[in-house]
Amino acid sequence: MRVLAALSGGVDSAVAAARAVEAGHDVTAVHMALSSSPQSCRMGARGCCSLEDSVDAARAAETLGIPYYVWDLAEEFEETVINDFVEQYQLGRTPNPCVRCNEFVKFRELAERAKALGFDAVCTGHYARVEEGPNGKQLLRARDLLKDQSYVLAVMGEEELDRVILPLGDVTSKTAVREEAEARGLGVSNKPDSYDICFIPDGDTQGFLRARLGENTGNIVDPDGNVLGTHRGYFEYTVGQRKGLGIDRPAEDGKPRYVLETRPSTNEVVVGSATLLSIDTVRANELTWLATDDQGEVLTEISQEMGTDDDQCLYAQMRAHGRAIPVVGLEKTTETVKIRLGEMVRGIAAGQSLVIYRGNRVLAHAVIEFARREGEWK
């Protein structure tokens, strides 16, 4: 099989490509250059897309003896990921740029180009599994749940699922991957992981948004509308945030305040007690349902002993490394889904990804529109 392997320059993609070669595939490597100024895209372990990464990717390809190319996708990345990130914050939402990148760049753009060039599949170093089920391919959590990335891959469509190879889905730990990289002489075994938002390498998201959107002073208010302080831009805040609120006046009960919502129409940030963050009902749109043979039927009884590997139970995950929460109610149309959770969850924001699982199998992905306590729907 002709396979196009995405080499980021890190240890995971290098080992994934090596496994694809070892499996007997005809592998060609490609490095996706996502930044127009790559020399500024790495600070310590932060970020990716640096010149160092492209050099490391080329070295890994040379070690493996496979062809290597660099694709300049900076324009596509700017348009579909960075611009969307800014626009979503401007709308008062909390986007997940990694999901967006995987949807439009690392899979859709990569898969379309691979297909046009005659490749049968693409190979990446993501930690998740694609396995053949009774009714076709299934996307599953990785064996190593601490590294599992099925959450950010759930946005893939059925066609992409049929044309992707994920060789690291069965590994037991990142340590095992590093040891394998060293044994293969790939030269990236001790390279640190990238983290945070790759296009904000200094980690200052507020400063990045302020530079793009400017300052827009407004009020910080409590749920009753009482003014507690001011802010420099509602887009610098996200639901659940506790630090950096800049409020001198303490709450009446002396407990911390948290961001409950941002209101672009009035340029306000609403803060309140932690109890007001707790929700049990979520509505989401832009629904992608991956499992054609499982339409999300919910168990009538949920046992407290059920773990996330119970293949009968329905679960919802709303953060990349968040806990899977049992789902006790689900209603959906072709584009939207509404779920009721089996327990209260705090700090869920519009714009975040909702991923629905049956045990460890991914059923669907949607973008959260809003979250409430049951009975509070407007």
Automatic annotation (TrEMBL):
Signal peptide: none annotated. GO terms for biological process: methylation; tRNA wobble position uridine thiolation. Disulfide bonds join 101-198. Gene3D superfamilies: Adenine nucleotide alpha hydrolases-like domains (2.30.30.280), HUPs (3.40.50.620), Translation factors (2.40.30.10). The active site is at residues 101, 198. Belongs to the MnmA/TRMU family. This is tRNA-specific 2-thiouridylase MnmA. It comes from Gleimia coleocanis DSM 15436. The lineage of its organism: Bacteria, Bacillati, Actinomycetota, Actinomycetes, Actinomycetales. The gene is mnmA.
